[in-house]
Amino acid sequence: MFTDLFNTILYNPILNALIGIYNVIPWHDFGLSVVIITLLIKIILYPLTASSLKSQKALQDLQPKMQELKEKHKGNQQAIAQETMKLYKANNVNPLSSCLPLLVQLPILLALYWALRDGIATVDPARLYSFIEYPGEINPLAFGFLQLSAPSYVLAVLAGLAQYAQARMLSHKKGPHVPGAKDENMMAMMNKQMLYVMPVVTVLIGASLPAALTLYWFISTVLTWLQQILLWKKQGKPGVSQVS
């Protein structure tokens, strides 16, 4: 039941979109098909991504006030939790919304992984819609040099660098130093670990996957980074509401 639903909603549409684009674009380049499908997915997920980025920025801007609350109610975890929720409410921040796009992307990534795997191999004609022409064997060589069916270490490193650039931009959005905030060094250490660990994980995973999926991840990360830059410029540095 779940498998049929997954195939109907995600796998079959993505596979057919990939093959359909491959059929109509010049030179029948599957790499270009991956680029186009990535753009389409990013457009569909744009509202969720924008919401996530806004939440991340808002949470980062609230860090100084959160540190003040921890110092003010030191040792009283219940008071800290209550005041933190008031701070979130006063500034219209939902800390869970930053995780939503990732949760939505996981099934899409799985569907895309299988679609790319099956697309690069021999496509099952039974999976194609009636209006999608069966292409036969697909050429896995993209742009004349990139073998999509094999891992690409260069592309994995590029994806890691894109991940680092995005994380670094967020980590630099910090408020002023709060004297006496003993948790600040710990938080800075955790932010630094995320800044370096996630790109390394991206490289390691990307180096073990077919280049077609790593290409998607690289382009998707770059587009998210650009969206983040535009959002940061548009929003500027918002004020933080006080909690009495």
Automatic annotation (TrEMBL):
Its main location: membrane. Belongs to the OXA1/ALB3/YidC family. It comes from Candidatus Magasanikbacteria bacterium GW2011_GWA2_46_17. The chain crosses the membrane at residues 30-48, 95-116, 141-164, 195-219. This is Membrane protein insertase, YidC/Oxa1 family. GO terms for molecular function: membrane insertase activity. Residues 30-231 form the Membrane insertase YidC/Oxa/ALB C-terminal domain. InterPro entries: YidC/ALB3/OXA1/COX18, YidC/Oxa/ALB_C, YidC_ALB_C. It is a multi-pass membrane protein. It holds the Pfam family 60KD_IMP. It is found in: Cell membrane; Membrane.
